[in-house]
Amino acid sequence: MAEMKHYTLGEYVKLLEEKGMLAEYDLQGKDGEEIELLTYDSREVTRGTLFICKGAAFKAEYLKNSMNQGAVCYVSEKKYELEKEVPYILVKGIRDAMAVLANFFYNKPWEDLEVIGFGGTKGKSTSTYYMKAVVDDYLAAQDKPESAVISTIDIYDGKSKVESHITTPEAVELQMHLRNALDCNIEYAEMEISSQALKYGRVDEMQFDVSVFLNISEDHISPIEHPDFEDYFQSKMKMFEKSKTAVVNLDADYIDRILEASKAAGEVVTFSTKNPDADYYAYDIHKEGKDIHFSVKCEAFDEEFVLTMPGFFNVENALGVVAASVKLGIPTEYIHSGLRRARSSGRMEFYHSKDHEVMAIVDYAHNKLSFEKLFSAMKEEFPDYGLVAIFGCPGKKSLLRRKYLGTIAGQYSNMVYLVAEDPGYEPVEDISKEIAQYVEAQNCPYKMIEDRGEAIKDAIETAEGKTLLLVTGKGAETRQKYGCEYLDCPSDVEYVQRYLAEYDSRH
Q1: pLDDT of residue 166
Q2: Cα(495)–Cα(241) distance, rounded to whole angstroms?
Q3: Residue 59 pLDDT > 70, yes or no?
Q4: Long-range contacts, stretch 195-199, CB < 8 angstroms, 24+ apart
Q5: pTM for the whole thing?
Q6: 20-48 as b/e: b if 16+ CB within 10 A
Q7: DSSP assignment of 450-485, as one string?
């Protein structure tokens, strides 16, 4: 593996010019100065930094601080009036330029990795961790380091493991993580690909060795995300042009349009739990004890696989991973072992009281499609249990979710608790009241308790008969977003374990 090469300021200008992104520049004789850091965070700036001015909330003082801390030059869509003239590069679009700059600065690390991307409205995190389990079993057999992962849940790149705030990082962080993985002799990276990342160019300039498209339904529609479903759909479809091989779920809505868009990929492979003509077809899906068994028929084999994570809907996620694994040349023994042990922190985590009267599933389900799958599956798998839902919606985002989640939870549940779920700048009470009208329309009782821990405690203490709690939205996350700050808090998993233990001590 070659050591990362640093480029001069003049070489960055030449690159932007070649890409047709350059508007104006003045390097003031610093053409030959090497760039040692690329960032848009003024707190990170050191000597030798190329500083990017980006974002609606960007302030000129950030740029002043950066230049005082040793930045060589700034990249922006507009020129800033500073006390003294400093080198600058003006570009036609800062988001497009960021991906180009990040790939150049980090020397295109994805070219030397096997990168597997997962796209869709539901199941990206679960599929990403199923894939990681399979890949890591394969790597462990060769005594190689575990794979890197970039997901909604967390990021591991060989050098650090951190909790995520967004599904797909900005291009600068994304390429940095991939570079870290490469520097740590990691060979594979699994990642989630969000519609926002595709819309705003975070994954531009790179390619996925294999991408898996799971499904699509109306989501992320708001003034600050996608203005309508068509914008959301078209953003999702951009994944295919960046894929050497695209693995597509034939059971997805709008499949004709998806297959048409998938032609932009180098190769298309299909999977299905309903259509026997798919390249990878899952059949005989059934439960044995707590495990889910399913058989997969494809050109290479016809074999049974086992999932130990609950939820029949997870067979779709696993099937996409089976197809991707075969395309990557991973032997089936590691697909079997990986899927058996596959877990995703905060995904379908199952807990119960000692008398099994109260059970709880902690999951990240947070949109229409994931709610429909989760609630219908749990009603089918646990017919003797009354459902209690505990969830909220984020502030100022995905506004249609409030109607969909309230309606679905109200249809299936005996009781609904409406709680805080990253409210940002919007009052939790306002969000809860909006959801509540849709719960009420289904003749389902509800309580509005902002604190998630208090709601979980109340649900367990007041449970009557066999009760299954579906605690959704936050999973294993340990932070809540209020305003622009992420405040530390116990995870839903911790709350459930704590109050089930109290229940056991009383009974």
Answers
A1: 80
A2: 43
A3: yes
A4: 195/220, 195/225, 195/226, 195/232, 195/235, 195/236, 196/166, 196/167, 196/168, 196/220, 196/225, 196/235, 197/167, 197/168, 198/119, 198/235, 198/236, 198/238, 198/239, 199/226, 199/231, 199/235, 199/238
A5: 0.84
A6: ebbeebebeeeeebebebbbbebeebeee
A7: S-HHHHHHHHHHT--SSEEEEEES-TT--EEEETTE
- Mean of per-residue pLDDT scores for the chain: 94
Q: What angle do CA 453, 478, 44 make, to 5 degrees?
A: 150
Largest CA distance in the chain: 78
Long-range pairs, 463-467, Cβ under 8 A, ≥24: 463/357, 463/358, 463/388, 464/386, 465/357, 465/386, 466/356, 466/357, 466/358, 466/384, 466/385, 466/386, 467/357, 467/358, 467/359, 467/385, 467/386, 467/387, 467/388, 467/414
The single-letter DSSP state of residue 4 is P
**DSSP summary character for residue 425:** T
What are residue 38's phi and psi, to 5 degrees? -120, 125
CA–CA dist 42, 52 (Å, integer): 9
